[in-house]
Amino acid sequence: MSSLTKDLINRVLAEKVLVITTEGMTLVGNLLSCDQVTNLVLSNTVERVISPHSESEPSSETTQGVYLVRGDTVVMIGLVNEELDASIDWTKVRGEHIGSTRHA
Predict the structure, then answer these.
(1) What is the phi-psi region of residue 27: left when phi exceeds 0, alpha when psi lies from -120 to 50, beta otherwise?
(2) pTM
């Protein structure tokens, strides 16, 4: 891991982040730890499942608690604007599934 990456990760430790994985999972939680291969430990983790417009069931959030994300499955990690995030009713959000980015 480069020193720039380490600096960026250290700035967001204990902050609320959103992680997208190679399996298309969307996880939101507080970043507790990160190591040299980008394994992440999140606390107060919630998995968001956004339903497409074509489905009748609402989008959902499932509490996961403390969650370990393997570094080789991390596609993206970003800071969450907590005020904006709290203002959104995630059960009403619709969108297409991200899908897997894993290579065969």
Answers:
(1) beta
(2) 0.86
Question: What does the buried/exposed string (b/e) look like for 63-85 if buried means 16 or more CB atoms within 10 Å of the residue's CB?
Answer: ebeebebeeebbeebeebeeeee
Tell me the percentage of the chain whose pLDDT exceeds 70: 91
- Residue owning tokens 């980008």: 38
Number of Cβ atoms within 10 Å of the Cβ of 6: 12
Structure tokens at 81: 């604007």
Which residue, 62, 61, 33, is CA-closest to 77?
33
Q: Is 37 exposed, middle or buried (0-12, 13-18, 19+ CB in 10 A)?
A: exposed
Do the beta carbons of residue 83 and residue 66 sit within 8 Å?
Answer: no
